[in-house]
Amino acid sequence: MHIHILGIGGTFMAGLAQLARAAGHHVTGCDSGVYPPMSTQLEAAEIEVIEGYDSAQTAFEPDCYVVGNAITRGNALLEEILDRGLPYLSGPQWLAENILKEHWVMAVAGTHGKTTASAMLAWILEDAGLSPGFLVGGVPVNFGVSARLSGSNTDTPFFVIEADEYDTAFCDKRSKFIHYRPRTLVLNNLEFDHADIFSDLAAIETQFHHFVRTLPRHGLIVSNAADGNLERVLARGCWTPVKRFNDTAGWRAEGNDVDGSLQLLHGDELLGSTNWGLTGTHNRSNAVAVLLAARHAGVSIARSLAALSRFKNVKRRLELRGAVGDVHVYDDFAHHPTAIATTLAGLRSKVGSNRILAVLEPRSNTMKLGVMKASLPASLGDADLVFCYAANLGWSAAEALAPLGERVIIEDDLGRLVARIASTACAGDQVLVMSNGDFGGIHEKLLAALAADVSAQEMVSQQGREEQRQIDD
C-alpha cells in the first residue's frame, strides 16, 4: 500500500510513517518546516518528505492519504482530496486498523509524563527480552528512535503507545486515544490543557471516560490514586480491574535525588529497590506506574527495577545539551505550568544552590491563548532568573510575569534574548530552556555565544599576561 501522510513532521505522524515503512508500505509525506529529530528520523528511514501542501501532490496517486490533526480545512491538498473524493483516514485510525489490531496494546495517558512513562515501559519490556513495538512522542535514548514496529522477535504481542488526548483529525474530534483499544492502560494524571480544543476540564474528563469504556474486562488500568480528577473519571463507570498507585496504604515509590535511589513499596512492605539516573517525585510516580503495567505483561518487579537502572530517559526531558565555562544548558519540553514547576523542581534537587536561569517560550496553542498565564509566575518559583521569549503572543508577558519583579527579563527578539542570557550567565549556572518546539535553535546559538564570551575572556587574560610579562622584563 502507498500512503501519503499530510503533516508527516509531527512526532506522532513521523512515528506512524516509520511504522508503516517497517511494515512494508510505500510511504511519502508532506509538511512545512520539518525539523530534528523527526526530520532526521524520516531521512534515515528513506521516507520522501515534500515541503508544503501543493494540491499537485495528488499526482502521486497513493492508495490512501493519512491526515494529521494539524491539517485544517482550507489546506490546499486536503481541499483537493475532498473535492475529488479521494480515500483518506486519520493517523490514529490508520494505525489502529493496520498496526495495533495485531498487538497487546499498552497505553500511557495523562496530562503530564506520557512520553517518559511510555519510554520507561517500552524499555522494561525490551530489557526483559519481549522486544515490543512502540510509538512515543519523543526519542527514548535507549532506542534512538521514536517508533519501532518490533525488535528482533517479530512475534511479540506487545505494543507500547503514548496515548494523547488531543483531537484526532479535522473530521474526527474525538481524542486520538479512543482508537487504540488497549489491554493495559496507565492513567498518570489529569488536569486542564489544550484550551484550543477543550472548553474546560469536564470536557477532557469525558474523553478519558470514553477511553476507559473501551478497555476489556480482562485488561488492567493502572491509575494515580492521588489525582482526584482521575478518580472522578473512574467513578463515572469502569468495567476493568484497577490498580492504584501513589496511595500511602498501597503502591508507591520513594527515593532520593542525591544518591539516585528508588524503592517500590506496598503499604509498609519494601518490594524492591534500585538506583537510576532520573530525579523528582514525578519520575518516581512514572516508575511505579510502569512497574505495575509491566507486571501485567508478565515482567517481575525485580526484573523491571533492574531495567530502570539502565533507563536513559527521553531526549528533551531535562536533556543536557552542552556546557561552556561551567555553564550548563538543558533542554526540556515543559510547556504547561505544572510541567514547568515539576521540571524546575527536579533540576533544583539536582543542582542544589546553583543558580537556575529559566528560559521559556510560551509556544503551545494553550500558552499562546494565555489561558494559563496567571499560573506562570508560581510555576517559575524555583528559578533564580527567568528569560521569556514573548514574540507572537496575544497577551502581555510583562504583565503576566510582573509578580516575579526584577527576576524576569522579556525579549521578543531571539538574538537579543540569546545575548542577554549569555552576558548574564556565569560559572556554575544552570540554563534550563523550556519549549515544545525547536525555539529557533536557541540551544546551539546560546552555547556558541557562551563559547565566544569565554574565548574573548581568555584573549583578554592572555593580553594581560603578556603585558605583565613585558613590564616584568
Question: What is this entry, summarized?
Answer:
This protein has 473 residues and is an alpha/beta fold. It contains 15 helices and 23 strands.
CATH overall fold name of the largest domain: UDP-N-acetylmuramoyl-L-alanine:D-glutamate ligase
Count the E strands: 23
Level-2 CATH architecture of the largest domain: 3-Layer(aba) Sandwich
- Which sequence of strands runs across the widest sheet? 8-7-9-6-12-13-14
Radius of gyration equals 24 Å
Shape: globular
- Counting helices, strands and paired strands, the structural category is alpha/beta
Helix content: 25-40%
Overall residue-averaged pLDDT value? 90
CATH superfamily of the largest domain: Mur-like, catalytic domain
Q: Assign the CATH class of the largest domain.
A: Alpha Beta
Percentage beta strand: 15-25%
* Low-pLDDT residue spans: none
Q: What's the end-to-end separation, in Å?
A: 81 Å
The structural domain count equals 3
DSSP helical segment count: 15
Largest sheet: 7 strands, mixed
Descriptive overview:
The protein is an alpha/beta fold and 473 residues long. The chain has three domains: 2-91, NAD(P)-binding Rossmann-like Domain (Rossmann fold); 99-308, UDP-N-acetylmuramoyl-L-alanine:D-glutamate ligase (3-Layer(aba) Sandwich), CATH 3.40.1190; 319-457, Protein-Tyrosine Phosphatase, Chain A (Alpha-Beta Complex), CATH 3.90.190.20. It contains 15 helices and 23 strands. It has helices spanning 11-22, 38-44, 76-83, 91-98, 114-127, 201-212, 228-235, 281-296, 301-308, 337-351, 365-369, 376-379, 397-400, 414-424, 442-472, and strands at residues 2-6, 26-31, 48-51, 64-67, 88-90, 104-109, 133-135, 147-148, 158-163, 167-169, 172-175, 184-187, 220-224, 242-245, 251-256, 261-266, 269-275, 319-324, 327-332, 356-360, 385-389, 408-411, 430-434. The strands form five sheets. A seven-stranded mixed sheet has the order 8-7-9-6-12-13-14, sandwiched between helices. A six-stranded mixed sheet has the order 18-19-23-20-21-22, with helices on both faces. The chain is globular and about 80 Å long. The termini are far apart. The model has no long low-confidence stretch (mean pLDDT 90).
